[in-house]
Structure formats: structure tokens, C-alpha cells
Design a protein that fits this description.
This protein has 207 residues and is of the alpha+beta class. 60% of the residues lie in helices and 12% in strands. A three-stranded antiparallel β-sheet has the order 1-2-3. A two-stranded antiparallel sheet has the order 4-5.
Amino acid sequence: VFPVLLWAAVRFGPRGAATAVFVVCSITVWNTAQNDGPFVRDSITDSLLATQLFIAVSALTSLVLAAETAERTQAGAALAASEASQRALADEQAALRRVATLVATGVQPSRVFGQVTEGVARLLGMPGASVLRYGGARTATVVGGWSEDGPLSLPVGSSFDLDGDTVVAKVLRTGSPQRVDRYRETKGDLAETLQRSGYRAAVAAPV
């Protein structure tokens, strides 16, 4: 039964190893109590010692292997998470450097807004993003945009009335990050434009 115990420890970890050991030991004790199996001796004391020795060896082997396997799995997951975090940090720093380079060279604000928008979308894994400038309490104008498909759903230079519960209108009212999970239930000029472009949800934050 040792190959089965080792397989359970490697495949299912501590819980699988403990379950397998419990099943094997239960069968072993039952068979020995019925005077059957490889651990039956001339005296009940010898049978008990042989059974206990088998249980101890099988349990110790399986549980130690399971613990080692679980530790290696956790270490691998932690390493992968650390590498992902480092890559994300490196991507953020690279995006900041690109924006800073554009600002330092004195390019047009439209190029800076476009680079910022693309950087944010790529870092967050979004299919598209836009930067809008508020023109008072009722309108917002698109000053930067990026889409992985190419065409922008909100063309640069277009203006929209903030007459609904879009994330842009919510940010203006609250001054804090907002999200909308169901654009189909949102009314307004900007919401209708986003719905026609295939938007189902959006998040926004004030700059």
C-alpha cells in the first residue's frame, strides 16, 4: 500500500495523505482484530506491536512527504506572485518614464494624454480607456484615448453631457473613484454612446 500512500501525499497534499492513512490503518486494525492479514502473530501483544509499527511508519512517511509537497507548492506560488508583482512594478515604472520623457521634451498635451491613457489601460489589462476633462458641472471632453481594437469608442475632442449615472458623472459628483457594472441600465448621452460601443461596465478615477 505504500505506493498508494505516497501517491496520495504527492497528489492531494496533507489532507489526502491523512485520509489515505486513515483508510489504510482502519483496514489494517480491522483485519488484525479478525486474526487476518500480515500482522497476526502468535500473541496479541506481538500482533499489536506489529500493527502499531506499520501504522507509525506509514503515517510518518506519508505525512512528512505531504508536508514537504505542500511547502514546495506554497513556495512556488509565493515565488510566482513575487515575480508577477515585480513585473507589474517594472511595467509601472516604464510607463511613468515614457510619460515623463514626453513631458520633458515639451510635446503637445494631446500626446501626453494619449500616452497616459494607453499606459493605464495596458497596466490594468483593460480593452480600452479614455481621459476626459470636465467643462463645468454638465459636460466633459475627451482629451485622450486608447483601444486595443484600434478605433476609439470615444473620439478625442468629442464632448458629452453628464446627464446620467456614468462613472464620469459619478466621479464629478463625489470626487472619488467610481464604477458601473451594468451600463445597460444607465441613462444619458454618454451612457448611450458607451452602450453602442459595446461597453458593459467601467471604472473611473479623478486625476
